């Protein structure tokens, strides 16, 4: 992960939340008052967000001590302590919500991805994500997918060519779209073509696509069409694929399965904070 970019993101997130300062913490507690947070899981899953905890709190105060009990990718159970953070109480409270929001989302994505990857057991299919991420969080969303055991599709519009139905319609045909793109790109950039019919599949193969995506096709259609695709062309299935039918798609022999649900519709992983004032043995749940 790009740590420089991460720090800039965290600054933006903190500025959104803090504005000119934290009225609640600054008016109640002194700058010298010390305290402790314990982040702990309230459900089972895969933890992701160690870099957020480390970089986030240290950005607020370099004197904060951070003790990570889990690393990214670790399986956690409800009740497990993820990290303990000690330092000025004002700064701990300033960072708590932003950091929790991020690690809850990232852990949810990692957990969902882990479950999807398990559905491919016994097949050669690999799971990847899509561009259906929250604007501003793509680097973190895609990092969480990797932590969950899957792979990243293109990061944006800039690092691969994907010719979808609208591109093809405007260009006039799959052949024209592929030829126009091929004339202007270097050898390291791949061209992916989205197809929905047998005729489009044949044309994409003739046009020399590097990757063919079977868009919203049934497992039966994909299984029937795959033998037509030369080994030099990678294959991908996308659209209408859920955890319930994922294994069936993986069994078709398709190489890649892209899932927008990994990032566009996850429910936040339940993580909470136990707060303890220095010298006080009373724990407060947040």
Describe the structure concisely.
By secondary structure, this protein is an alpha/beta fold.
Q: How are the strands of the biggest sheet laid out side by side? A: 6-11-10-9-8-7
Strand percentage lies at 15-25%
| Overall pLDDT metric | 94
Low-confidence stretches: 280-284
Envelope shape: elongated
CATH architecture of the largest domain: Alpha-Beta Barrel
Q: For the record, what CATH class of the largest domain applies?
A: Alpha Beta
Termini, distance in Å? 29 Å
Overall structural class, as computed from helix and strand content, comes to: alpha/beta
| Overall tally of structural domains | 2
Radius of gyration: 23 Å
What is the CATH topology of the largest domain? Answer: TIM Barrel
Strand runs, count: 13
Describe the fold and architecture.
The chain is an alpha/beta fold and 286 residues long. The chain folds into 2 domains: 3-110 and 267-285, Quinolinate phosphoribosyl transferase, N-terminal domain (Aldehyde Oxidoreductase, domain 3), CATH 3.90.1170; 117-264, Aldolase class I (TIM Barrel, Alpha-Beta Barrel). 40% of the residues lie in helices and 20% in strands. It is built from 11 helices and 13 strands. The strands form 3 sheets. The chain has a 6-stranded parallel beta sheet. A 5-stranded antiparallel beta sheet has the order 3-5-1-12-13, covered by helices on one side. Strand 12 (271-277) and strand 13 (284-285) form a beta hairpin. The longest helix has 30 residues, at 89-118.
Essential attributes:
286 residues; alpha/beta; Aldehyde Oxidoreductase, domain 3; TIM Barrel; 2 domains; six-stranded parallel sheet; five-stranded antiparallel sheet; 13 strands; 40% helix; elongated; disordered C terminus
